Amino acid sequence: MREKLMQLKDEALAKIAQINHEKELQDVKVEYLGKKSPITEVLRGMGQLPAEERPLMGQLVNDVRGEIEEAVKEKAEAIEEAKLNEKLATESIDVTLPGRPVHAGSTHPLTAVVEQIEEIFLGMGFKIAEGPEVETDYYNFEALNLPKEHPARDMQDSFYITEEILLRTHTSPVQVRTMEKMEGEVPVKIICPGKVFRRDDDDATHSHQFMQIEGLYVDKNISMSDLKGILLQFAREMFGEDQRIRLRPSFFPFTEPSAEVDLSCMLCKGSGCRVCKQTGWIEILGSGMVHPNVLRMSGYDPAIYTGFAFGMGVERIAMLKYGVDDIRHFYTNDSRFLKQFNRI
Ligand code: DAH
309 and 162, same structural domain? Predict the structure, then answer.
């Protein structure tokens, strides 16, 4: 019996040594250690042995089983390791391969310019206000001293949704909304950036959707000179210390008096070029002293309070600052165009 066991052991160890696959290993394990294996049989037959031989034989069977189990375990580990090594060899990554470029987005130039303008006005104590893009006729026109049938409404061809609701044609309605909200408190010192819409045919300088920034400063004793000082400071921070501005008389229904504001041409420094049409000046915004009717309708007594207001086109400022020659570039969003603004 002892010889039989030794033989079984050698046989099992020899087989295990040959094996390269988990499945075969499993089979051999069942064959030699399973319930029906010859070794288990030996254990079962122990009852027939004389009592004094049993402990010795039991010990021997256990040793044999132990050795086979150990061999199976080692083999299993070896197979596992071989598998891992093979995987490492076949799946290795070439760390010297150049990576695929990741195209990161960037701030849209109009957003960047709005942020720059906001920074400048925040620095002068203005707050930022916003209003809806879908607006009522009242806020867009009437409360700005543009009653129905007023001829100046034609200056801003509008997208009407119903007779009383339209896409706002300018950011000026935010002036009215803010004053109403402030309920007569002063100072009202805000800028309002936002999208506006007009029924224009798109070309190099017109877009049916564009952006404006409105400004409003209402308090006691606000005068035209405050307007001039604030706008000069803005021009210098935006375009450089040597900037000059010029006010030209104009007309807007919501301001009296009204002025158009020109910047000295930042390209030719005033000597005359194509961009400034040889005049040395570039118009950038409309402005004026808030009309008494507008103040009154929004709950401010024009006998006590005065204010200035202005409205500028963001695209125009961006075009001048970055030398963009077609407003449509901001809206067609060709990535070759946008990429150039990656670092502003
Ligand atoms: N809302 C005017 C426009 O879109 C611009 C403007 C002019 C705004 C004068 C003002 C202002 O606040 O005082 O053409």
Answer: yes
Distance CA 2, CA 219 (A): 113
The answer to whether the CB of 129 falls within 8 A of the CB of 178 is yes
Mean pLDDT of all residues in 86-102: 86
Nearest residue CA, atom 10 of ligand 1? 310
Average pLDDT over residues 299-319: 97
Domain extent at residue 337: 109-341
Residue 291: pLDDT band (50, 70, 90) is very high
121: left (phi over 0), alpha (psi -120 to 50) or beta: alpha
Give domain status of residue 98, yes or no: no
Are the C-beta atoms of residues 310 and 214 closer than 8 Å to each other?
yes
Q: Ligand 1 pocket test: pick from 258, 310, 312, 316 the residue with the most ligand atoms within 8 Å of its Cβ.
A: 310
**DSSP single-letter state for residue 154:** G
Q: 127-128 and 188-197 as β-strands: parallel, antiparallel, unpaired?
A: parallel
* Å from CA of 147 to ligand 1 middle: 16
Ligand 1 closest atom vs CA 255:
13
Does the residue 54 lie in any domain? yes
- pLDDT band of residue 344 (cuts 50, 70, 90) is low
User: Which CATH number fits the domain that encloses residue 224?
Assistant: 3.30.930.10
Segment 234-248, tens digit of pLDDT: 999 999 999 999 999
Based on the fold, state whether residues 198 and 79 are members of the same structural domain.
Answer: no
| Residue 197 shares a structural domain with residue 128 | yes
> Distance from the CA of 46 to the center of ligand 1, in angstroms?
109
Q: Please state the length of the chain.
A: 344
Q: Which atom of ligand 1 is nearest to the CA of 215?
A: 12
What's the pLDDT tens digit per position in 163-188?
999 999 999 999 999 999 999 999 99
**Model confidence pLDDT, tens digit, residues 61-92:** 888 888 888 888 888 888 888 888 888 888 88
123 and 175 co-located in one domain? yes
Q: Which residues surround ligand 1 with Cβ inside 6 Å?
A: 170, 172, 214, 252, 254-255, 286-288, 309-311
Distance 286 CA to ligand 1 centre (A): 5
Q: Of 196, 287, 291, which is best to mutate to test ligand 1, by the most ligand atoms within 8 angstroms of its C-beta?
A: 287
Measured CA to CA, the distance from residue 160 to residue 198 in angstroms comes to 10
| 164 and 236 housed in the same domain | yes
